[in-house]
Write a structure and sequence with these properties.
Blueprint (H helix, E strand, L loop, with lengths): L4 E2 L23 E7 L2 H17 L4 E7 L2 H4 L16 H8 L5 E5 L11 E6 L7 E5 L18 E4 L2 H10 L4 E4 L4 H9 L5 E7 H6 L8 E3 L15 E6 L3 H8 L4 H18 L6 E9 L4 E10 L6 E8 L4 H17 L2 H11 L10
Parallel strand pairs: 2-3, 2-4, 7-8, 7-9
Antiparallel strand pairs: 1-3, 4-11, 5-11, 6-9, 6-10, 12-13, 13-14
Helix pairs in contact: 8-9
The chain binds the ligand NCc1[nH]cc(CCC(=O)O)c1CC(=O)O.
The ligand NCc1[nH]cc(CCC(=O)O)c1CC(=O)O binds next to strand 9 and helix 6.
């Protein structure tokens, strides 16, 4: 496997495969699973492979971890690259040429437009999609929310979506870029010499790495007025469109509600972005009781300075992938009717100066 660092997270050869179960196909197959090499990516891939092993005890799974261009450029502000594909392209080539059978991604890092021969094969059960506020150790016990931070405090964020929404709600604070993987970002925060009083980081990433205890508070529409990134907290599995074998494999680990919610979010984003990433926040929630079973979606498109917003809240019954696609499109139209197009137009003009990477 040229170009791949084989990462024996789990040593496949030590996996004990039980004797063929009668009545089940006992044919053993080996699947090659691609992932980025970061710790979070590996933990996420283990989560997926564990579910697959439970669902398909006779199959074998080999994990191949790869350092991508995105991983190598953590010191350069991400908005200098205008392609989200930075994180995914190199793995996709290996999927296309058959060296890999599928790739496990953070769904939020997957572009909404995939190469024509590839597809989003499955979305597993989503974790908490919210962002978290994490404050620096010397402020623990003194500040519990963004509103508690002294005026002029520097908040580290890694996306235009986060910065724009926070500027609107907390204009008295200052915002600075913070880059690197989650561990690096936390280390920057914890360094007493650093400028950051707090950082904003995804809850799901912290939870998956067992660092949920660092969370000072959870941000949402009702706490801090912060909507999340499209697909945040979910894992997306990318596969070849013509691969029926992998399709069957993945059918046992997909989670329907997570799939419908995230497809809605991605459809909204795809409709609005027209090929470019935009600062857009979403919050989806299933409203289920004896009388209703609907997906509620809140969405916002916001100017980079936080001065202009288009926002909407709407709900719909979603029974299929097509319903999800249609709902996302409908929400996009509502946002446009509320002025999202004008906000986006302005950002497009600015893009000639600032290359907006969207969400990181
Ligand atoms: N681009 C960074 C990224 N991609 C996925 C996660 C973890 C959250 C998730 O799984 O959605 C993060 C970290 C962050 O946004 O703070």
């Amino acid at each position: 496997m040229a170009g791949l660092q084989d990462a024996p997270i789990v040593n496949e050869t030590t996996i004990e495969t039980s004797a063929p179960v009668s009545g089940q196909s006992s044919q053993k197959a080996t699947f090659h699973v691609g992932t980025r090499a970061s710790l979070l990516a590996r933990v996420q891939t283990d989560e997926v492979v564990k579910a697959l092993r439970a669902a398909w005890p006779d199959h074998l799974f080999e994990i191949h971890a790869m350092t991508t261009t995105g991983d190598k450029n953590q010191t350069t502000a991400l908005h200098k690259f205008n392609e989200k594909a930075l994180w995914t392209q190199e793995l996709e080539v290996l999927l296309q040429n058959g060296e890999l059978d599928f790739i496990v991604h953070s769904l939020k890092d997957m572009p909404t437009q995939l190469p024509v021969d590839l597809q989003l094969g499955a979305v597993t059960k989503r974790r908490d999609p919210r962002d978290a506020l994490v404050i620096k150790p010397s402020l623990v016990g003194k500040c519990r929310s963004l509103a508690d931070l002294p005026e002029g405090s520097v908040v580290g964020t890694s996306s235009l979506r986060r910065t724009a929404q926070l500027k609107r709600r907390y204009p008295q604070l200052r915002y600075a870029d913070v880059r690197g993987n989650l561990g690096t970002r936390l280390a920057k925060l914890d360094n007493p010499e650093s400028e950051y009083a707090a950082i904003i980081i995804a809850v799901a990433g912290l939870d998956r790495l067992g660092m949920g205890d660092r969370i000072t508070s959870y941000l949402s529409s009702s706490h801090g007025g912060m909507l999340g990134a499209v697909g945040q907290g979910a894992l997306g599995i990318e596969s070849r469109r013509d691969d029926r074998r992998v399709e069957e494999l993945l059918s046992r680990i997909g989670h329907e509600r997570s799939t419908f919610a995230t497809l809605t979010e991605r459809s909204l984003m795809r409709t609005l972005e027209g090929g470019c990433s935009v600062p857009i926040g979403v919050e989806t929630e299933w409203k289920t009781d004896e009388l209703t079973d609907e997906l509620l979606m809140r969405a916002v498109v916001i100017s980079l300075d936080g001065d202009e917003v288009a926002e909407t809240e709407t709900r719909k019954r979603i029974l299929s992938r097509q319903d999800a696609e249609d709902f996302g499109f409908e929400v996009a139209r509502q946002l446009v009717a509320k002025g999202a197009d004008k906000i986006l137009e302005k950002i497009q003009l600015n893009r000639q100066i600032i290359h907006d990477q969207g969400d990181a």
